[in-house]
Amino acid sequence: MRKVWAIAKLTLRGAMRSRVAPLLFGLLVAVIVGLPLTIRGDGTLSGEVQILVRYTLGLAMLILSLAALWAGCASVSLEWQSKKLQLVATKPLHPFELWLGKWLGLVLLNAVLLAVAGSVTAALLRWRLREPLADPARRGELLADILVARRPLAPEPVDVDAAALARLEQARGLGRLPPDVSPGAAFEAFRQALRTEAFSVAPGGARSWRYPQPGPLDPGHPLSLRFRFSCSTPGPVRVAGAWVVRRGDADVRVDTNAVATTPHVLHVPLRDLPQEGALTVEYRNTDSEAVTVLFSPDDGLETLARAGSFGPNYARGLLLLFGQLALLAALGITAGSLFSMPVAAFVSGFVLLMIQMAGDLASLTARPITLVSHHGDALIGPRAAVFFQWVFRLLGSVASPLQVPDALGRLTTGILVSWAETGRVLLTHGLIYPILLAGLAAWIMRRREMALAG
Amino acid sequence: MFWRIRQFAAVARISLLDIIRQPGFLLIAAAGMALITLLPLLLTQTLGESARLVRDNALAVHWTFGLVLGSYAASSTLARETALGTAALVLSKPVSRSLFFLAKFCGAAAATLLFSLGAGMATLLSARMAAGYFILDWRAGGPAIAAPVLAFLIGGYLNYRDRGPFASRAFIGMLVLYAAALAWACAIDAEGHCGAFGAAMDWRLAPAGLLIAMALLMLTGLAGLLATRLDTVPTLILCSLAFLLGLMSDHLFGRATEPSAAVSVLGGLLPNWQHFWLADALSGNGQIPWSYVGHASAYGAMHLGGLLLLGLLSFRRAEWRNG
Amino acid sequence: MKPEAHETPPVLRVENAGKVFRDFWRRPRIRAVQDLSFEVRPGEVFGLLGPNGSGKSTTLKMIVGLLRPTEGRLHVLGAPPTDVSRKARIGYLPEDSYLYPYLTCEETLDFFGSLFRLPRAERRARTAQLLDMIGLRHARRRPVGEFSKGMARRIGLAQALINDPDLIILDEPTSGLDPLGCRQVKDLILTLARRGKAVLLSSHLLADIEDVCDRIAILFNGRLQAIGSIRDLLEERDRPRVTLPAVTPEQLRAILAALKAQLGREPELDYPRRNLERFFLETVARAMNQDTEPSGAAPSEGVAPYLDGPPHA
How many CB atoms lie within 10 A of CB B192? Predict the structure, then answer.
């Protein structure tokens, strides 16, 4: 460990004395203090918090990410090019120890810089929420809606597969399935239609979301319903409705007159509900006009229960960001161990892009990949299409574990960053993946002839 | 005087050769150009929106890859040569620092412009390939897709034959083959018959590409200025930041802000990249007037002049202990 | 070299080693070393001689594991050169010093010391002794990047000795050093050899090699041209030389006449001169007595005590 620490200290000294660390420090402070002064928000206190946390801390994180990646690449490849590693390689130092020392140095540097960025942002946030600057009512709303940690409750999934299969069989039986439509595509179309039906509320009707295991709910704090809907009448019309939250044999009803397509938050007191049992949230369409209300099956309603205060949530959010930086530094150092500087920066940037695109890659795998010719014919056969589908699926499955929950997005919407998620990210991004990458880099470095590079 | 021009040309030429012979340059340039060419294949299933998406994405790839290349070219030719002692060696000859700095910038700028030329040709070919609804014009775009592969094969063969530099030959090969593919695409119409030369091409992309090339020159100038004092990594980070802040310039310092002297000065100093990103102006049948290109270029030239002046001042005062 | 050195097993054995550098297409580009064999034993100073591009540095890089031989085998301290644990007993000075420019002298030596698991107190003591030895104690807080080539070379030499190695490999150790530094390095090499260390050095400065080496190998175009002890290779046994004490001109004339009568021809007569190195060292020593504050390297204060202990068993 002494050898690893010696390399780490060397990396830190290099960063300090080559002006990389002071430059980053200056940039971060300039961004965090300067950006909120120059950007004009929407005039609301919550808008300012959004700017401070999402944009300012987001930009600071972008700077740190680029720095972690490129400094990682440079820390090995430039030393290789300038032959400094030749001297180090003749000492009793395993390539794994060299990698670990470099990584530890960069991770420590990033931890300090992230802590500075996080602390300055938190200090600015506290300053902005002081009594003379913030209207107490707005401040209260902010503390209830955004500067809080709320846990999203998981609703019982709506299973329409059996019904979709039945419709498919019926269409086949009646010969209504067009010959150029595959059964898979037809099934998917029926499934989507049924899901949309399941989340629409006809005039005078009702739609329920059931939460079989809502977990412990603090009766002292209300349940938050965050919803958005569209309706059969185009435009931003108001629709009268009622939300009923039920647990056991007690319920609480809140009437609304909400505008379509706009996001709304409703706080429902939990004092009068029992502590045990499944929870049901029901929407009743009580509008006098014949308007059908449509909720998005995926995010039409979010039910949020208070799970803690903002401070610890913010700290956990920063830990998630730290996990991301640790992985980026590891990626950079590994790329720098394999390639020369510009190539390493390019390759690691590409890998980063793949991680960001993991979600899109996953969506591409839902159906076989097709290419259409000049005349509209399929250019690749069904086997090739399936092959490409598998390639994307493989890329998606490799990249998706590397994705991290959107910490800044959650902090600005008052959503909980749980300890379990934080622990998982720190374990995978801060330990398991770096060790795998270190193993790969050490394996390659042992096989390379040091004196040939540069 | 003529002697100075010869010196200038020699230093600039060597810088250009040194940059385009680096494998990293080839990798980034080839990846950018190939990605632009492959965009129609990736965006073909976008319900008739493919032409616009291909156009926008091609210009975005041109810009982002050019940003990395320009910053890398300028910083490698100045910071690396300073660290290696090559700069000190050249300056020990009767070469002035001003001439050296400007010639180095010109070498890096030429490399960036060559990439821009390639990316511009790839954009025109890509747009041509995706011009039809739901179908791809393989006759026009096919040769362009083959161009990078062919260029690498030619570069590899020449390297095998006479052990010459692979990277620069493959890069030049790509430019030549893209030019040939462009000439072919200009010569045929959508049905594959010979038609009026270039009639089927979307030439509105030319001024859009030119504007991006101008912006890339400014970024190369900024990287040159920074490289007089900083290593490659801080230069890349600062260039990326200048790029991001410059993109948000309107929002940060323009209409969205309260007018104040400090903010106005800051807004004036930071290049506003929005002046050079006109992909939206091409939607529908929009055109970018050449007069606008002239005005934006004048704005860019002014910024570039300022950056080079600062770079000159910084370079003239630089000291090298272990050159 | 001590007589018993011939009986001890070699610390370095090179057997028919060769190195071919290939191009991207795996075609042979340069045949840097061919069929090279030699051994170095404890207490021996072995020199590799040859013009530029003769394969000296390539050979040394193969020995320290920076390059892999394409033919033959190498045994360093009884193990292949890539064995990490054996590197704890090797000291290597490359042809250029390749130091971290942002580190100070002290930090540089401390850093390399910590790669050998040396305790902090030991590292500090050795660093101080080495800085005294190379005459850079006054510059211990200056970043290495600010140093002249000769000063960086001294630090390079110090880092190669921080672990008190058994096998010391020095690539052009006196390159960039002033005559004083060269003399100090040569004295140091002799001291280390007396302590039983094996020293392998490469140089094209023939005087340096002649001054310190027990045995030499001459390389040309990667091939071994000659190998043996300095005495065996250089001695001209058929041209004996007689050195006389101070004699009068009459005595000299009589001796020469006697020799001519014995040999049947005129013997050659010349007078020995002090060599330039010795003259330079004496002049600088006088100047140092008058000047107190050095800007570059200061005079050495002898060999670092930890390197000058009793000979190894």
Answer: 12
Residue B25 has pLDDT above 60, yes or no: yes
Separation CA B68–CA B220 (nearest Å): 9
CA distance B191 to B169: 34
Nearest CA in chain C to A98: C115
Contact predicate C115/A6, CB 8 Å: yes
Q: Indicate whether B150 pLDDT > 80.
A: yes
Paired tokens of B106: 């010109």
Q: A82: distance to nearest CA of chain C, Å?
A: 7
Asked if C100 and A10 count as a contact pair (C-beta separation under 8 A), the reply is: yes
Domain hosting residue C85, numbered range: 6-237
Scan residues 11-40 of A and list those with Cβ closer than 8 Å to B: 18-20, 23-24, 27, 35, 38-40
Put simply, whether C28 touches B (Cβ < 8 Å) is no
Where is pLDDT greater, at A401 or B175? B175
C 144-173 residues with CB < 8 A to B: 145-147
- Whole-model pTM? 0.82
- CA dist C16 to A398, C44, C216, Å? 47, 21, 17
Give the pLDDT of residue A362.
60
- The answer to whether residue C224 sits within a structural domain is yes
B199-219 residue pLDDT tens: 888 899 999 999 999 999 999
A161-308: CATH topology is Jelly Rolls (2.60.120)
Q: Residue A49: its pLDDT value, please?
A: 82
- A343 vs B contacts (CB less than 8 Å): 23-24, 27
Between residues A231 and A370, which one has the greater pLDDT? A231
Length of chain A: 454
d(C-alpha A314, C-alpha A297), whole Å:
30
Residues in chain A closer than 8 A to B28 (CB atoms): 342, 346
Residue A312 pLDDT exceeds 50 = yes
C64/chain A closest Cα distance in angstroms: 6
The contacts of residue C264 (CB under 8 Å, 6+ apart) are none
**Taking the mean position of all CA atoms in its chain, how far away is CA B193?**
33
Contact B135 A373 (CB under 8 A): yes
Instruction: Decide: helix, strand or coil at residue B47.
Output: coil
Taking alpha carbons only, the member of A112, A107, A109, A114 closest to residue A328 is: A107
Q: What pLDDT is attached to residue C301?
A: 65
**C185-239: per-residue pLDDT in tens?**
898 999 999 989 999 999 888 888 888 999 999 999 899 998 999 888 877 778 7
CATH number at residue C196: 3.40.50.300
Subunits with 3+ C-beta pairs closer than 8 A to B: A, C
Number of domains in chain C: 1
Neighbours of B283 (CB within 10 A): 10
Q: Which residue does chain A place closest to C67, by CA atoms?
A: A449
Q: For chain A, which residues make up each domain, given as ranges? A: 2-150+309-452, 161-308
Give chain A positions within 8 Å (CB) of C117: 2-3, 92
A352-356, B272-276, C150-154 — which one is most confidently predicted on average?
Answer: C150-154
CB pairs under 8 A between A and B: 90
Look at residue C196 and tell me if it is in a domain. Answer: yes
- Domain presence at residue C119: yes
Residue A453 has pLDDT above 60, yes or no: no
* pLDDT average, residue stretch C96-112: 91
CB C102 to CB A18 under 8 A? yes
Q: Is the ipTM of this complex over 0.90?
A: no
| CB-based contact C100 A5, cutoff 8 Å | no
- Cβ-proximal residues to B293 (8 Å cutoff; 6+ apart), any chain: B207, B210, B211
* B160 contacts in chain C (CB < 8 Å): 25
Task: Say yes or no to pLDDT of B248 above 80.
Answer: no
Give domain status of residue C301, yes or no: no
- The minimum CA-CA distance between A342 and chain C, rounded to whole Å, is 20
Q: Average pLDDT of C147-159?
A: 91
